[in-house]
Amino acid sequence: MNTAEEQLQLIERMIKQSQQKISDNGQFYLLWGWVALSASLIHYGLLHFTDFSMPYLVWIILMPLAGIVSSIMGRKQSKKAERTLYSDKVLPYLWASCTISMLILIVLGYKLTWTLVYPLLLIIWAIGLFSSGALIRFKPLMYAAALNWILAIFAFFVAFDVQLLLIACSMLFSYLVPGYMLQAQARRDAA
Questions:
Q1: Fewest 10 Å CB contacts: which of 14, 32, 37, 39?
Q2: With contact defined as beta carbons under 8 Å apart, do 85 and 54 qualify?
Q3: What is the pLDDT of residue 18?
Q4: Which residues of the chain have pLDDT under 50?
Q5: Domain segments of the chain: what residues?
């Protein structure tokens, strides 16, 4: 039978493995951060600087492409990764539930106003970021979640085009900065 100290060491080891895997997976935050940042800025630019009648198409094109790339990256990593409670079981289900919730919002967005959909997406991102940060004990993700909640509150009170800029801000500070921090941590851990 395991002693309490051995159980704590096991939990600590599992958390460290999860942190390492997520550190290695900073690339997922970078992928989604760059794609959503680009899509929001392109959408904004098309709205303000062109006569293009369907600026939202940038999302319809870029997001599925990012989903395909993300799936391929995930499959490659899962083949070489060791199974842990946190990284291989909890986090994929967490982000799957966030993704399904976002897809429902996006697909049924025509029933709502888009000025309501984008703040709700920020809230869902915050839930995923906060939970991920708590599970792997990476505070920058938790701070990023807090930023998303603040941006979501603000987004409820601004016009749609400003919401696009808030999403760009969210991606910069919630996905790209933590993604690069995770990559740097992985490089430090490897050295």
A1: 14
A2: no
A3: 57
A4: none
A5: 17-190
